[in-house]
Amino acid sequence: MTQAGSTGGWLGAVVRNSGYLRKWLILGIAIGVIAGLGAVVFYLALEYAGEFLLGDLGGYRPPAAAAEGGERGSIGFSRAWAIPLVTFGGALISALLVAKFAPEAAGHGTDSAIEAVHTDPRSIRSRAVLVKLVSSALTIGSGGSAGREGPTAQISAGFGSLLARRLDLSDVDGRVAVSLGIGSGIGAIFGAPLGGAVLAASIVYREDFDYRALVPGFITSGTAYAVYGSLLGFDPLFGFVARDYQFVPTQLGWFLLIGVVSAGVGYLYAKVFYGTVALTKRLPGGQVLKPAVGGLLVGLLALLVPQVLASGYGWVQLASARDTLMTIPLWIVLILPFAKILATSLSIGTGGSGGIFGPGMVIGGFVGAAIWRLADLAGLPALPGGPGVFVVVAMMACFGSIAHAPLALMLMVAEMTGSFSVLPGAMITVGIAYLLITRSNVSIYESQRINRESAEAERRGEAKIVKDEFE
């Protein structure tokens, strides 16, 4: 007879025997609370790490997004020589922690959580979650080019995995629980609960949508945002960008152009990032040395282009308004998408710890800013009065296309910028970018499966192999 403890105890029995509504109310709220608290803990860890490492030691403070105070940041470097040393040191300590305690915490986190959904939703170790939190705070806080969504996704996905183990959930429910963790963690840290809910249902596939995760995703992501917002505020990350914008049919050509350029830059981002991953594996040096060298190279690049340091959200904030965008040199605006691609590849593609979602939005935001700036300089017609709308739709298109989650990204960026008025034009831009990307096999998340049928076929094949081995 099976022991109660081996099947998740009385609570596991209650959850497993509950109807659909009660089951996902219990699991959704539990995962949401942890996702919200995890996002808060990581945000604060990142703030303190950045203030000490990049601020006090490096003598440089990057600008902040509106919801984070909106400070304009430092004007130049007070101790330029210290920047490469800080980025090197932060990457080195981060890599040491990962190598010593949880090697699977290397990289951007979200991809490993997606892989867990498809292979074993019970496999995410709690230790890896804690190591990911600390190592990512060190990487980004010291100036590494990475996003904060990867660690928060892994925190909440790890809790979903823990529930799958402790409550002995079915494989189907375990996969949904981990997917909910991914979406709610990202939605919470970006203040985008609706986009986070849709992301939970779409991020694990390239050409499909997991309807089983959608409704529970509303519960989980809403709970996570309520917890996060009640402690750190409910303001949109970038404030209200292009709030009063109204779609004008004569601007259709601009949205088509942004879609095409965003797809091209997004494609380049994915290819360069995974090209760096592949090259790093072939180079000599261990799991500690390679990310440390990557951090050093990012610091040296920052001496030329300071905007590549850390998350870069504050620079997107400055690029979204005409008066502040004009204070950024034109050559910086034009080169920054490519410099950010290189910096992120060096920071995370070499084995560092952090997310690639956030840098993707910075890259896209400056694609939009560059197009607007050049068009304004040339005096071209039908141009919006400010760059905000171009910045917003390019963020959606650039990363939404290569993440194969166009709807989720449209909703998330609209929530992050308070810019739902841009959606008519954004739908055109994102649609064009996504259609172009689907003509290739490129994705920024390599662990995504094509669709539910291919994922199920893969699992049946693996199950047969295991069965044959035991026979």
UniProtKB/TrEMBL annotation:
GO molecular function: chloride channel activity
Keyword Kinase assigned: no
GO CC term (a single one): chloride channel complex
Short name of one Pfam family: Voltage_CLC
Gene3D superfamilies for the chain: Clc chloride channel
CDD domains to which the protein is assigned, alphabetical: Voltage_gated_ClC
Subcellular location: Membrane
Keyword Ion transport: yes
Membrane topology: Multi-pass membrane protein
Keywords, sorted A to Z: Chloride, Chloride channel, Ion channel, Ion transport, Membrane, Transmembrane, Transmembrane helix, Transport
Main location class: membrane
InterPro entries named among the record's database cross-references: Cl-channel_core, ClC, ClC-type_chloride_channel
Transmembrane segments: 24-46, 81-99, 176-205, 254-274, 294-316, 328-350, 356-375, 387-414, 420-437
Cross-referenced PANTHER family: CHLORIDE CHANNEL PROTEIN CLC-E
Stated name of the protein: Chloride channel protein
